[in-house]
Amino acid sequence: MSTVEHTIKLYNSLKGQKEEFKPLHPGYVGMYVCGPTVYSDVHLGNCRTFTSFDIIYRYLMHIGYKVRYVRNITDVGHLTDEGEDRMSKGARVAQLEPMEVAQKYTVGFHDMMRIFNTLPPSIEPRATGHIPEQIKMVQDIMERGYGYERNGSVYFNVRKFDQENPGVYGNLSGRVLDDLLAESREGLKSQGEKDNPVDFAIWMKARSGDIMVWESPWSVGFPGWHLECSAMSTKYLGQTFDIHGGGNDLKFPHHENEIAQNLGSCGCTPANYWLHANMLLLNGKKMSKSDGNTITPMELFTGESPFVTKGYSPMVVKFFMLMAHYRSTLDITDEALQAAEKGFRRLMETNSILQKMDPHTADFDGSESDTDRTILRLIDEAYAGMDDDFNTAIALATLNELGSYVHKLANQQLDHTEVAPWVLERLKTIFNAFIFDIFGLNDEADGGDDGTVDGLMQLILDIRAAARAQKDWGTSDKIRDGLAAVGIAVKDGKEGTNWTKG
Amino acid sequence: MSTVEHTIKLYNSLKGQKEEFKPLHPGYVGMYVCGPTVYSDVHLGNCRTFTSFDIIYRYLMHIGYKVRYVRNITDVGHLTDEGEDRMSKGARVAQLEPMEVAQKYTVGFHDMMRIFNTLPPSIEPRATGHIPEQIKMVQDIMERGYGYERNGSVYFNVRKFDQENPGVYGNLSGRVLDDLLAESREGLKSQGEKDNPVDFAIWMKARSGDIMVWESPWSVGFPGWHLECSAMSTKYLGQTFDIHGGGNDLKFPHHENEIAQNLGSCGCTPANYWLHANMLLLNGKKMSKSDGNTITPMELFTGESPFVTKGYSPMVVKFFMLMAHYRSTLDITDEALQAAEKGFRRLMETNSILQKMDPHTADFDGSESDTDRTILRLIDEAYAGMDDDFNTAIALATLNELGSYVHKLANQQLDHTEVAPWVLERLKTIFNAFIFDIFGLNDEADGGDDGTVDGLMQLILDIRAAARAQKDWGTSDKIRDGLAAVGIAVKDGKEGTNWTKG
Questions:
Q1: Residue B221's beta-bridge partner residues?
Q2: Chain B residue numbers touching A479 (CB-CB < 8 A)
């Protein structure tokens, strides 16, 4: 029933090794990714995580899977004192409403995801939209003996869970429960009303001042932070599903607690494969607001930051992210971004040249050349890179290698008869597929999609050609300078004149 | 405490007349608008409604109100058989998930609202995200004696409500309960398990096959359609708030039932002012899919419809909507759209000319001319139009009248000394405010916001000027034709050369 021919290997954090991906149901993938908490602007590190999983989503669909991709919005949290200006009290409309804060940052998050040209997930459930499901899960956990109530709050009994499910808690993050217990005995964690400091809340009784609260069998309160992902993944993907993803920093305690909650409520491990995207560094160091070692996406785009010499467009930043495997740390430096900018422009230019090439059918003798074989091998290698734990770095490097053949053809270093018409067609298809469908890049050279810039450039290049034919160097120079002023470079080659926006 | 100096009059459907708007809390406005049902693409009629309320939202903010604008997403409904291809059964991930349908059309709706350049509301609550609130409201209604249970479903007792609150039910829509009862006795409505055919469901027991269901004290089921708006407006705006809006078609039964539910649950009328946007017609007739008399927003943009001779851009369509008061029916015809296109281009061109004008301070004698007085009066009239039930038609017509002074100045039919520098500045400010802030139009002439088109046009116009100075008519003609090919017209005036994209 499956039409998927690729064998995917992925690094499963749960096993600490690469494994062959076997979906629960041939041809279908259920994937859950922990989404943003919407009471502040999305961080650049989050952008990397969501871009990485967007590419995984895109690739799985590209090779034929039907994917249900669920990414939540965490819109309940400690919002009491967050938000914009406080309005006067006394009237509901004049009080601060946490959902206004959630809406503001949800819209901002969606805008940023659009800027990075990521696809919306199949379902985007909100934590506040699933209170009954979370209450039900707390009840299930209590019925199975893993939850206890203290003064209206409910806690998950980690030690009991560990005794009855040995080796589970801490497995994903490489934590040892005894060490966690020892740590907490040393007073690093407050026990409060919990039986044990390692226990965690699954339902919190509201404190005075909490405004996002709901009724429950235990108290007016709100669900524990970890609970929403367990409840929503179960609701939309089932008790057991294929892939669970998120940032590395969520491994502990969030993902450990998720696994404990799911197992604790129904006896099932939620996901078979756990994927974690690695950290973004800035000049070799962890980003941190308090250290001042930080840059926002907008600062990166505008260049308004001491860490960059200029602004880098969203697609350049995305390309920069693609240059590393999602499981590697990625270090933002101005030099690396400059290299990414060149790399991105070059790739887009290469594709533009490639797509304009005509297959040379007239003088084609039907044979398969060494060049043909090399191109076909490289295409396989690009796919093999993605099949190997979605290694975009390898796929990109291979595309660049393929690109060198495009330039050789364009410069007539390589004779056109060396590339069979069908191989050229396949190369065109594969370039478009990787650049636009899989990587989700787009061509920023065109100011809009109505073709105005293309039309104006055609006119300008016509005038330029006429001026040069008449040796009117004044006009030709004026055009060169005018185009440079808007960041457009013109290149004359044997295939004609190309232009790129830099 | 309020900084709002305008006196707004609005047509209150509840009273059937225009009234002065008095917000519950000076300086603040709470506004609820019934949003889309997300299991199909948004209709053009809905686009008109949401655009109308966006302009009301924008205008209230423009004149100084702090507005909380709540617009819901109806994501629970009869989705059982809706959606895309059915996947194979047996596994959760492989079943049709109504929330995938809701997400698809929510994203599509947001995209369309962005195309029309409307602002996101302050809060955008989802019906499925407020099940506990809706269950609570059913309980409150039952406690106050207006709800009864039948086989796991709960119905609102309209007749009892009418007896105890005479004159309320039907008041908004001009319906008489006795007529409704007579109608239903004639067998036009099925009574089913209801005590009375006019009663409506506030909780529905799930039927076999329903998949969006929740537990409740009465049954596993789902809330009645009308309930969500009552529950969500109460949650985010309070039991009584300022403005409730929606399309005319929602007056009955939806808004009548909302009022009954709110009064029935807490004894409060929900909103003080009810505003209704009128219908969009197509060639004089109601749009209807079954009659074939219909056009989608995308068909209107692309021109792929037998009802239009060409495509009209989203801003032209929006401008067309602005040309009528939101309470008037608006008839889409190809001729009217062509007129709107000309009107929109002209307005944008006028503003472009105006914004480039320098105040003539050097030869200004300090006096106030007749022209000054006329301009100031017209500015007041534009605001007066908006203050009078948000009449965009009047505001637009007045802007056009003001525009004639801009053109007279540009053509030197009117001497610059006739307009005092501060009046010119005010005119500039007011034009930008109306066009961009209040109407939410944007300038489609520029292919993108990075200035590429502007930069290229500057270069082309420079070359053109040089060519004309050298009497190089060949180049000049080539430029004219090349620009025409991308829809750009160039106009030489005494103020310099202007260009517009048509």
A1: B205, B214
A2: 459, 463
Do B478 and A457 lie within an 8 Å CB cutoff? no
* Mean per-residue pLDDT, B36-60: 96
Same domain as A358, residue A239 = no
Q: B445 in a domain, yes or no? A: no
Where among A406, A438, A470 does a domain terminate? A438
B 25-44 near A (Cβ less than 8 A): 25, 28-30
Domain boundary pick from B256, B277, B298 = B277
Does residue A306 lie within any of the structural domains? yes
At residue B230, the pLDDT reads 98
Which pTM value belongs to this model? 0.86
For residue range A482-493, list pLDDT tens digits in order. 887 777 877 776
For residue B1, being part of any structural domain is answered with: no
Which chain B residue is nearest to residue A502, measuring alpha carbons?
B452
In this structure, the answer to whether residues B393 and B468 fall within a common structural domain is no
Q: Is the peptide bond before B253 cis (omega within 30 degrees of 0)?
A: yes
Q: Say if residue A99's pLDDT is above 70.
A: yes
Separation of alpha carbons B124 and A97, rounded Å:
12
SS3 A354: helix
- Whether B177 and B219 map to the same domain: the answer is yes
Rounded Cα–Cα distance for residues B129 and A125 (Å): 9
CATH of the domain at B51: 3.40.50.620
Assess whether B327 and B456 both reside in one domain.
no
pLDDT at A76 over 90: no
Residue A1 lies in a domain: no
Contact A479 B457 (CB under 8 A): no
Q: Of A103, A215, A475, which has the smallest distance from its Cβ to B124's Cβ?
A: A103
In chain A, what residues touch B214 (CB-CB under 8 Å)? 132
B125 reaches A (C-beta below 8 A): yes
Q: Nearest CA to CA, how far is A19 from chain B (Å)?
A: 22
A453–B456 C-beta distance less than 8 A: yes
Q: For residue A482, what are the contacts with CB-CB under 8 A and spacing of at least 6?
A: B455, B456, B458, B459, B462
Residue B123 · residue B236 · CB < 8 Å: yes
Q: Looking at the complex, does the CB of residue B212 fall below 8 Å from at least one CB of chain A? A: no
> Biggest alpha carbon distance in chain B?
90
Same domain, B30 and B158: yes
The alpha-helical segments, DSSP class H, found in B4-97 are 44-62
Per-residue model confidence as pLDDT tens digits over A381-431: 999 999 999 999 999 999 999 999 999 999 999 988 899 999 999 999 999
- Does B297 contact A at CB distance below 8 Å? no
Mean pLDDT within B366-389: 95
Q: How far apart are CA B36 and CA B53, in angstroms?
A: 13
Domains contained in chain B, number = 3
Task: List, for residues A101-151, the tens digit of each pLDDT value.
Answer: 899 999 999 999 999 999 999 999 999 999 999 999 999 999 999 999 999
What integer pLDDT is reported at residue B189 of this predicted model? 58
Band of pLDDT at residue A289, cut at 50, 70 and 90: confident
Q: Is pLDDT above 80 for B402? A: yes
Residues A75, A124 within the same domain: yes
Q: Do A475 and B466 touch (CB under 8 A)?
A: yes
Q: Which residue segment(s) compose the domain that A493 sits in?
A: 452-501
Bond from prior residue into A253 cis (ω within 30 degrees of 0): yes
Q: Which of residues 346-375 of A touch B (CB under 8 A)?
A: none
Q: Chain B: residue nearest A1 by CA?
A: B88
Question: Both B142 and B59 in a single domain?
Answer: yes
Residue B443: list chain A partners with CB under 8 A: none
B371 and B491 within one domain = no
Partners of B30 in the beta sheet?
B68
- Identify the closest residue of chain B to A126 by CA–CA distance: B129
Provide the pLDDT confidence category of residue B183 given band limits of 50, 70 and 90. Answer: confident
Quote the pLDDT of residue B380.
97
* pLDDT score of A451: 67
User: What's the rounded mean pLDDT across residues A209-225?
Assistant: 92
- CA A477 vs CA A208, A464, A498, B452, B472: distances in Å: 71, 9, 17, 19, 18
What residues of chain A lie within 8 A of the CB of B91, using their CB?
24-25, 28, 238
Find the CATH number of the domain harbouring B424: 1.10.730.10
Query: What is the token pair recorded at A491?
Result: 């290149």
A452 shares contact with chain B (CB less than 8 Å): yes
